[in-house]
Design brief:
homotetramer, alpha/beta, nine-stranded mixed sheet, seven-stranded mixed sheet, 34% helix
């Protein structure tokens, strides 16, 4: 049986990441047919040709709609700016293609709803690029929680921080425009929500306080322009089972580069994790003598599948791109069998619902429930 | 000139800590007269006698009011349960004694106000036991902030966690009674507030979500009794200058023993700190080549006074009790000269105002401003 | 121009690692032609066929010599047990193939010398699989040393530890046989030596004390068999410029999974590194105010090439397999231009010379100089 | 019963440390009579008077021999430069005083032997200031080892590093003179040896390579003077039971301030410790599921006596000076009952024997056995 025919729209940060994943997934896992890298779209033909050559795609185009018409293309990776996701994903689904779309779905909740509707109508699989849930240590965290290793979780905290907006003197960019979204809230907020969704109950209500460290930034012509969205967010959450927690986000946290720090507090233990040390997990349980208790640093290894398919020795480490390869594998499984550890458009819409609720909560200064 | 005559009420956890501080402060600092340990009060004479012998006090009593009448006693350490602070502190001040009272002032805000009024009326010094602000690394943090080392602070996060209420099966105790206070909110919340007060602007408004991981606990007679206060708190804050932040507290965080994790985010850098590693400070600044930037772990040393008066070599470490000795020194300075790095009753009342606002915010589900 | 035609012998731990690297190198780097995965050899045809399918090779064979005759094969990856390296590498070179051979060269120094002679005679490139030197953080360490960031290095320490031989009750295996080599000395020792060779002067003399934590192990038939080589090594080194240091190795260090802890002490600073946290580097320099000095934790990022070609954002992390892709890229550069950051057979022989000197030092109980 | 009458010679770094310990030990432990601080000696009367006032001693003198004649003095703390220890300790013992002498005993082994002989002849207790063995976490480490928590220890590593000699441009001082001793070897080497002596078997043989990072230093008059001893040491050890290990020492390790990093490898686990984080211990045992194994960070707490007598809550931290108070307590116990966890002159001489063997090994370039 031939491998999936792949189309790719966009070859930036995540585009290349998708290409690498499509390229390596079969060799790593050995249980799926090698995807065929068929058609790549970029903003113009020249760039597309160049990238297709580099990334190993057979055909290239400056018009992404060409992929819809390509009979060899069965699944399309969409890695363009968020505002373009809806149009492309809906078109792809309507053309009968499976879709692997980067997160978040869309700055517009209505568009995100339309994306889900299109997925349902198409009968195709539509999956979002929430790669952090694929980290074997994040999966192990979920497994520990579900197995009761830390008892009943009663509260949690998540922080996600980087520093690409930390420089007050960096020029105004599209990232600070309202039309790109709420800023750090959707940019980052979706990640903690996606991770939590794999181990805890759904979000019931949110309360958010959003911040603009720098009220204005200088534009290219030297004038100041008001920043239209948020670089900092402090959010409280209540889950449907009464668990409470907080998510804190910053794109302006100097020195933080890829921090996703998670703490889960349970009746029998605590789990702590930080994506900047993505091959480690901290686990405290109350077992054993008090004098010998402590947080143990678990190093990723073959006992945390699918780490074993990358390296047979523990402690040697996976990298960020490996997570995308795992995601590609789960996507293929989903397409082939309907079973896969993924955030599909239905689950993704719930994440975005929470994001929009955060923005509303901030505006209204009150708790916002996700549904009545 | 003779050293201060000291009275001590209570010889438990903090009582012993005060006694050790009074006993060692002169030898450590060398610039104050040796305090004279005069009179110690406990619940009964027998215990008082025993403790006075052990802790080196001259006289002992089963009636704390005896200290008020003792002409040799000039300053009284109050280390009894919070609910007793007001009566004792007010009586001591009225008797013309200086007061060194453990935090918080009182479960009752009205009582705390009366304490402040008594302090003002007395002309004596009234200081609270906020020892964490005395840690040389916390002081260095404040110095860095004030000197602009991380630019303008725009947001912050503080966590304070221990696990003494983490065991769901631990019996119901006074700690879960409403009359002891709001639980973790006043038990722990005052510490982050005290630390922040030494480096940032005052709190303008708070929003709190308080949690009870265990709704009831078993009493001595085997029946379940409802827990009346909170073991978990998630709090958002806005300061008067617009800085926003969050404080998160838990007495039910398995494995955390003395965590006070502080993160300050500024326009030029970030500071991170954790009291469990109280001899370290993490500092990130954007200076130097990007390839060589990173959080630096600063080890406490003689360049962080008054560490130098304890040990002349860096990296050898201070301990929790040393902080109280520093506090005793600042108290003596305050009594002698009016100058000292302390939280007096006036500042302390502001901290308690914020605590009560948190409780009110939780009840009302809305932001509560500290003053109109 | 077509990409290199690749042959692969062996598909175990490192064989798969090579296959993944050959498969991904072009997409990651974009500046080399895509290697063509031509011919794969395993112990039998059936396994070879299966692996060729999984790993994307065109042809498969149960006889590795078939690769020598395959005109499409230009470079051969040799990933078989160490004792087979010499025969295969020499044959490959004589057949006009470039060679990418896993480390170490051979348990026999004479064989290693023959391998180098064959490489020289062939005019082909012969490169060893020392992947840790490719870690962007290890490269950055070398750059810092060479640029004088820590002044003149005067001493160093390296530890390399795993725990696969830590279980006293694990059965006797080939790893404990003398014919497999000296045990941890060649198994691990070559890695620190390879890393040090990229930043410090050559080794002048060694003194070694080698240990057998367990004198015998139980064989399959239940009898005890003497362990013939070493699981623990403590080695002192002097470099040609007088720098002194130590390398300590253990295959019996419970809990260590991939530790390669390096400390370099210089006249102006210190560097510390641990492969278990391969995306971090610790740097101390004496610049700035003493009160603010400390080891800074540098997170891997785009400023540490070629990290930038994997992920454009810092702190997201590379993994073990990524190092092999970098190595493949350096190998291709070496083949194409003669320039590449690799350990070739000439450099590799020097590493093995030091290993054999360690064994001799232990036997003789004296310093052994590497050359007269 | 009155507390011990104390004399103190020297009030520098360790002198103040002794004074603080004598002053606080009774209040902390509550089970010993309060020592009476009787007589303090310094180089001149003026300084002695000043220090006696600050440190709370009753009498002061510029002539240390006055303490010998003081009938109230029962025990004498000797905290002067190493070269003076022998004369003072012997005189004190001959005068019938107990002795608490800072480490090491003496730069001269013959003098150290005379010190032991004097102690034996006197019938008094003679104890050395090896405070690190008093750290509750070091004690817990010893307890874990002895209880078999990590099985049979088969190898170990210790590093001790500071940076007070790291600056190449720092002027020549007495520390670099041969008459002060071997440099880092005795300055630091005695500490690892003292710690190891509390948990492992005695040293059988040593092999040492000693280093001078800077061959000469500039004197006050601007000329270069040859450095006469060593700032760096790499030492291999074999214990009487066949355990092997290494000790590495540096006074020239930029950024290290109080590092004493210990690793003990056993047949069932590993312990790791660093004095710079003196309130933590790392323990790995092979118990539990492999997927959940890891080094656990044990925080010091009341389960690690005598921590409980300092603070009743875990994770709050002891400091360097607290270790001396524990040592004072053990000394008092030793004086009162003959039982105490101390390094007396007999054990101390064995430590010094190993130090001199290291120096000889370096000179001779061979293993040196401690006894025939």
């Amino acid at each position: 049986m031939a491998g999936l025919g792949v189309g790719l729209i966009g070859t930036g940060y995540m585009g290349k990441c998708h290409a690498l994943a499509w390229n390596s997934v079969a060799s790593i896992f050995g249980d799926v047919e090698r995807p065929r890298l068929i058609h790549l779209a970029e903003w113009n033909r020249e760039l597309a040709d160049d990238q297709a050559h580099k990334l190993g795609f057979k055909r290239a185009t400056g018009n992404w709609r060409d992929l819809l018409l390509d009979p060899e293309v069965q699944v399309i990776s969409i890695t363009t700016p968020n505002a373009l996701h809806a149009e492309m994903a809906i078109a792809a689904l309507e053309a009968g293609k499976h879709v692997w779309c980067e997160k978040p779905m869309s700055p517009s909740f209505a568009d995100a709803e339309r994306m889900l509707a299109a997925a349902k109508a198409s009968g195709r699989k539509a999956v979002l690029g929430y790669n952090y849930i694929q980290n074997p240590m994040v999966r192990h965290m979920a497994k520990l929680v579900k197995s009761g290793a830390i008892g009943q979780v009663h509260s949690f905290r998540v922080e996600m921080d980087e520093d690409f907006m930390a420089d007050a003197n960096a020029p105004f960019s599209w990232r600070s425009e309202a039309k790109s979204g709420y800023g750090v809230v959707d940019d980052f907020g979706v990640h903690p929500l996606s991770i939590l969704s794999t181990m805890l109950e759904p979000v019931e209500a949110v309360f958010a306080d959003l911040g603009k460290p720098y009220a204005s930034r200088v534009t290219a012509d030297g004038t100041a322009r008001d920043v239209e969205n948020f670089d900092v967010a402090h959010v409280l959450l209540r889950l449907t089972d009464g668990v409470s927690g907080a998510i804190q986000l910053s794109r302006a946290a100097w020195g933080r580069k890829g921090r996703i720090a998670i703490q889960l507090f349970g009746s029998d233990g605590t789990i702590a994790y930080d994506q900047e040390r993505m091959n480690e997990l901290q686990l405290f349980t109350r077992s054993g003598k008090p004098a010998d208790q402590g947080f143990r640093t678990i190093l990723a290894g073959p006992d945390h599948p699918p780490y074993n398919l990358f390296v047979p020795a523990a402690g040697h480490g996976l990298g960020f791109n490996d997570l995308k390869a795992i995601e590609a594998h789960e996507l293929i499984r989903t397409i082939k069998s309907g079973q896969g550890h993924v955030i599909d458009f239905a689950k993704g819409l719930e994440i975005e619902r929470a994001i929009h609720a955060m923005a509303k909560s901030h505006s209204d200064g009150r708790w916002v429930r996700l549904r009545d």
